[in-house]
Amino acid sequence: MSTRYKDHPNFQSRHEAFFADQPMSGEQNVCGCILTILMHVIVFLTLPLSCWFCVKVVQEYERAVIFRLGRLVPGGARGPGIFFIVPCIDSYRKVDLRVVSFDVPPQEILSKDSVTVAVDAVIYFRISNATISITNIEDSSRSTKLLAQTTLRNILGTKTLSEILSDREAVSMLMQSTLDEATEPWGVKVERVEMKDVRLPVQLQRAMAAEAEATREAKAKIIAAEGEEKASRSLAEAASVVAQSPAAIQLRFLQTLNSISAEKNHTIIFPFPIELVKNFLSSTSVKQHAS
């Protein structure tokens, strides 16, 4: 067994407690010793044929938990590489230490603000201690999957819909820490939790779409009003600049006529200068006073 598993904080205490809670009687101890000696003699007498039954191999990502006469063999899990067992009295179980992923089926969840949503997630976990995962629980993988479903419902039930949609990372981290704490006595380490999809009822989707559309229209109207305000201020500033020079008005008038003539229009509206109207009105009023 590698050093990192022997040094696991829970390994030594649980390993010793396992043997302390199951003391062997004197008769069982004598029978076990007799069977062990007998099998060793048989293995020795049948060499090298017995090597096919004694020598086992586990891969780099595997560990073997050995039981002798139903009791855990001291020394912890074996591997990776070659290890030896005694036929008939030893049995072993291989444990895969690689990261395993599984999809949590969609869970119908009632959020804190009384909205029913369907949420599914993906869980990544691995066996951190092979011995504990075999001796403390029957099926660590299945138990972790069932616990993940329950944890997903319990945690999301305390969140509002907006928190579920906007704070997915925080919810995932909370789920990971909760699962990791619960599965530590099983020798399981939860590496990552990710929420895949949040499905809302059709009526709620329509209401949210209408709300989003109304929000976008309101923002568009505000932007258009701000543009009109800025354009009006610019026009007022331009008018004040042009009013300071009568020649600028004439130049702008001629420029407008040039632009109109370039477009080859059939009808041209020729504006009458306001200054001529003022002069005509002033001369008419003088003549009336003179008469």
Automatic annotation (TrEMBL):
Transmembrane spans: 34-55
Q: Does the keyword Transmembrane helix apply?
A: yes
Listed under GO cellular component are:
plasma membrane
Record-annotated Band domain positions: 53-212
**What subcellular compartments does it reside in?**
Membrane
Top-level taxonomic group = Eukaryota
InterPro entries noted in UniProt? Band-7_stomatin-like (IPR043202), Band_7 (IPR001107), Band_7/SPFH_dom_sf (IPR036013), Stomatin_HflK_fam (IPR001972)
Q: What is its main location?
A: membrane
- One Pfam annotation reads Band_7
- What does the record list as coiled-coil region(s)? none
Keyword set for this entry? Membrane, Transmembrane, Transmembrane helix
List the SMART domains: PHB (SM00244)
Q: Which family does the record claim for this protein?
A: Belongs to the band 7/mec-2 family.
- The name under which this protein is listed is PHB domain-containing protein
Species this protein is from: Panagrellus redivivus (Microworm)
